[in-house]
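HUMAN:
Could you generate one sequence with tokenized structure?
ASSISTANT:
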Amino acid sequence: MTQLQLIATSPMGLEAIVAREVRELGYDQVTVENGRVTFIGDELAICRANLWLRTADRILVKMGQFKATTFDELFEGTKALAWPDWIPEDAEFPVEGRSHKSQLSSVPACQGIVKKAIVEKMKEAYGTAWFDETGARYVIEVALLNDVATLTLDTTGASLHKRGYRKLVTEAPMKETMAAAIVLLSRWRAERPLYDPFCGSGTIPIEAAMIAWNIAPGLRRSFSAEDWDGAVPASLWDEAREEAYDSLRDDIPLDIVGSDIDPRAIEVALAAAKAAGLAKELHFRVESVAKARPRGDYGCLITNPPYGERLGDLGDAERALRQLGVLANGLPTWSLFVFSPTKQLEKLMDRKADKNRKLYNGRIECNLAQFLGPLPARDWKNPNLLG
């Protein structure tokens, strides 16, 4: 197999988590940049990364990178790349683009130049003057930054946050990738209770259960590169999926509960849990945060409180955060991880966070406030879990 440069694109603020996930897959030649993690892997790595990365957006093949301050440079640099090694004669190959701080600022013009250069390259390789583009889809992106063009092929298709279990959504749903990131940033482990008092469509509880049972998040969906049998053989996808099934740990008991004041949200959460194959393991109920009474000790409360959206208005949202603070005071052994865009969270909860981490929910700047309770006695033996 071929050693490739692969890129896992990342939401802002999650690059280090994506890099950690890549290393855990066994790929240690990793470079972290804003919004992306580049690593070296073969064709099997394409399959594994798409199936396993919980916090990345998509997996790209880096075809080439070169300086391009003129359209001639962009054309010649693109044409020099090995497109026929990947793209068959009947393929559909649309070109997407973006440009930032570059002389070639017209994105449509850059897309047109790249498309023309690839067509010329393929004409030479296949000895034909016309491509019907009726076959498998190969999405190409030209990204210009500081006059450097990076050309990639998208192996993923629909973004990796689309796991396949969420058919219905509530208002302002959290992406699955962000929910997984918040769980990974917490100190939660499967042996501890987990409670989400603003669970909405159930994304945090479902992602936590998938992490606990080591369920590959992409196991229930398909990817663009599954149709690329010449470049990424079907046998590699079969191998990667077999590895994922063999890695399941579905014998671990779980104590994961989600609640929400909105009955419709709980209906959506129950449907998503069923679609994810976790209906018997997760517990959801209609309940306000004021009436919530989580059971157990040394648990983790991990939540994304609605702020002025699902709760109706700003006053309702602030009242809910105050009630969350009251709830936290009754849970002396629990740790809290609260993801919110409001700058008043600590004031409204009437307690000081031990740690704060800036993250972005799309383009909205948010904060993960971490209120750290004591660890179970057994966890003190593992220094990796200590804050």
User: Anything to note?
Assistant: The longest strand covers residues 58-67. The CA atoms of residues 83 and 211 lie 37 Å apart.
